[in-house]
Amino acid sequence: MAAATDAPTTAVPPVRPNDPVVWVRRNLFASWPSALATLILAPAVVVAVVRGVRFLFVDARWEIVRVNLALYLVGPFPRDQIGRLWVALAVLAVALGAGAGAIAATARETAEAAGRPIRSGWGERVRRAGPPVLLVLGILAFASGFEPVLLTAGALALGGGAAAVTQRLTRRGRRFVPTLTVLGIVASLAIISRFGGVPATNWGGLLITMFYTIGALLLAFPIGILFALGRRSTLPVVRWGCTAYVEFFRGSPLITLLFVGWLILPFFLPPDFPTPGLVTRALIIFVFFTSAYVAEIVRGGLQAVGRGQREAAQALGLTPWKQTRLVILPQALRAVIPGLVGQAISLFKDTTLVLIIGQSDLLAVARSVTKQDEFLGKGYIVESLAFVAIVYWVISYWMSRESQRLEARLGVGTR
Amino acid sequence: MDTQHGQDELIGKRLVPGGTGEVMIELRGVEKWFDDFQALTGVDLVVGRQETVVIAGPSGSGKSTLIRCINRLEQHDRGRIVVDGIELTDDLKDIQEIRRETGMVFQSFNLFPHLTILDNITLAPRHVRRKAKKEAEEQAMQLLERVRIPEQARKYPGQLSGGQQQRAAIARSLAMEPKVMLFDEPTSALDPEMIKEVLDTMEELAESGMTMMCVTHEMGFARHVADRVVFMSDGGIVEVDDPETIFSNPREERTKLFLSQIL
After folding, report:
1. Collapsing DSSP states into helix, strand and coil, what is residue A243?
2. pLDDT given for residue A308 in this prediction
3. What is the pTM of this model?
4. Between the CA of residue B238 and those of A393, B56, B63, B235, B248, what are the distances in Å?
5. Chain-centre distance of CA A350, in angstroms?
6. Which of A188, A215, A262, B200 suits a disulfide with A88, CB 3.0-4.6 Å?
7. Closest Cα to residue A159, out of A90, A228, A66?
8. CA separation, residue B97 to residues A324, A354, B70, B72, B89 (Å)
9. Looking at the partner chain, which of B96, B108, B112 has a beta carbon nearest the beta carbon of A317?
10. What is d(CA A65, CA A58) in angstroms, rounded to the nearest whole number?
């Protein structure tokens, strides 16, 4: 009778049997509808996976990628200038590695202080490194000779090294990292295009895709934040101006805006006004478009921060700008990381629209290479698009995975 | 005539500062409207240096609105508010000056969830008073000792109990070394077992000579700690007296009714 109260074993958590039969019954055949769905979907999944794997490793004629790898990666970029790209890649690796290291260190410290120290087992590390490693290996598999492999490995090592260094910096030391990262990105662009280099109109493939994506994100995020703050301004003129900007660019199809930037804008500029180059115009359009969306996402985050936070900051005597910068914005931005990353992924894929202004981005290359004599009319479009789809998917998936990690570490959703 | 005399005495109790006798906060004819609703109907009150005033009254009587006007979380529409010789005007400089001198503790704590307790406390001293980080942190640790939660310094607000959070919020306000502390129902969001730890902290603060205005329903605190109790109803002050008189021998019917309902 008293057994239940004085038995010490009650302090042990109940053991959940790890029986595969139980698992299958619980997850696949829990009810009649679920059993039916399993019976219909399971064969479909098996067929799809088998076919997919057979296509990737047996059937696919990857020679179209092997022959044209340089086109996929850099498009019409002059081949005698490729050396610049490797140097730029190394600089970019250092810049991005340093930035990633600093973010990781901040996230780790935040999580530790919050009492949720991060378990970073080997499984976790392998899962994290999986997508980018697969991507690099997948691309290098089509490369000819050892040179690209060695150079890529070198760039990756530099990036990893930079990350290792900034991870070990103190909070004070890390303050300079964002500036360094931006400078590095600008420098790598200069290495490619300045000093007798190649103008952006001659870039293509993955290079131009990444250029538009990274460039537009770097500019659109701060601009978007400013417009989000502007829409909540107490000055009506500022508020209306920001609202008009956001609603205009959010309400216009991107493709229309690109056309306007390409064809119509130069008409309206004065004759002797230095019209920006085609690529710059496209970049500006991407920035306008993306910053409008970023503004709306951030505005949502700002509204999610309780009124009491502003009042507490006011009561402490912080100036209005410091209330926003130190109290409101940090909370708002953390709350909208998923939305911001979604917008980044969306922009990454939207850059394929530069096709219509005549630029050979990754997707455009994928279509044009099938028109080469040796591949024409033999259905190589399947392999070509498959390769490009995998590249897009891996990069998008990687961004989304990393953002989920960042959310967990910054404690989004916990109070 | 007797009534007239009583009326004068009543007004007098509102305008004679307690504490050291020096005037710290002066409210004259303060009115506040929310659209068509008049939340404050001309409030006169003078609070002395080192005095503790408890404001009681039914909900909706304007207690919170009154103290929120003092640091301009609400803007009063008519009347004068003077804090330590500075009149509260639309001039941003005056507002900032008064906010620097005035600490406020909220019902829902309003700690900054993205900052550790230590960073919550050092934020304003560093960014408003321009203190060095090290100095601000030393001061913060002393304050955390004072409210008895030094071991929580490196944690985030979400990891603390309600009582601990409210004491951290008090420490955060004190870090600005305010001359006045405003408490807006500081224990109303707390579980019963945590109310006492916050009230004890407030009592120690009152004993240390802080000028305090507290909106609270804790009548035990009002009886033991307050120098004067202000009873408000329908946006105006009904009665002001020392706690002994107001609890055992209230003058006004409305005060009697309110006290009979909550005691």
Report:
1. helix
2. 92
3. 0.81
4. 70, 10, 12, 9, 16
5. 12
6. A188
7. A90
8. 19, 55, 12, 11, 11
9. B96
10. 15
Chain A nearest-CA distance from B261, in A, is 30
Token look-up 């660019």 returns: A249
What DSSP designation does B228 have?
E
Contact A317 B116 (CB under 8 A): no
Express each pLDDT in A359-386 by its tens digit.
Answer: 888 888 888 877 777 777 777 788 888 8
Those residues of chain A that have pLDDT short of 70 are: 1-10, 17, 114-120, 196, 409, 411-415
**DSSP-derived secondary structure letter, B74:** S
How many residues would you count in chain B?
263
What three-state secondary structure class fits B165? helix
Yes or no: say if A216 and A347 are a contact pair by the CB < 8 Å rule.
Answer: yes
ipTM of the predicted structure?
Answer: 0.89
Distance CA A103, CA B170 (A): 32
Contact B106 A312 (CB under 8 A): yes
Residue bearing tokens 């538009």: A212
Helix, strand, coil share (%) of chain B residues, nearest 5: 45, 25, 30
d(CA B160, CA A332): 22
Tokens of B171: 């420490």
Which chain B residues are within 8 Å of A315, Cβ to Cβ? 71, 73, 99, 102-104, 173
Among B258, B227, B255, B260, residue whose Cα is nearest residue B243? B227
Contact B122, B137 (CB under 8 A): yes
Q: Which residues pair with B180 in a beta bridge?
A: B102, B211
Could you tell me how many residues make up chain A? 415
Of B114, B128, B159, Cβ closest to residue A316: B128
Compute and round to an integer the Cα radius of gyration of chain B.
18
Nearest Cα neighbor of A248 from A298, A285, A301 is: A285
Tokens of A31: 């009810």
Contact B172, B120 (CB under 8 A): yes
Output the six-digit token pair for B7.
């009326």
Considering only CA atoms, which of B68, B142, B140, B148 is closest in space to residue B107?
A: B68
**DSSP letters along A280-319, please?**
HHHHHHHHHHHHHHHHHHHHHHHHHS-HHHHHHHHHTT--
Q: Residue B83 — φ and ψ, nearest 5°?
A: -120, 115
Q: What one-letter code names the amino acid at A55? A: F
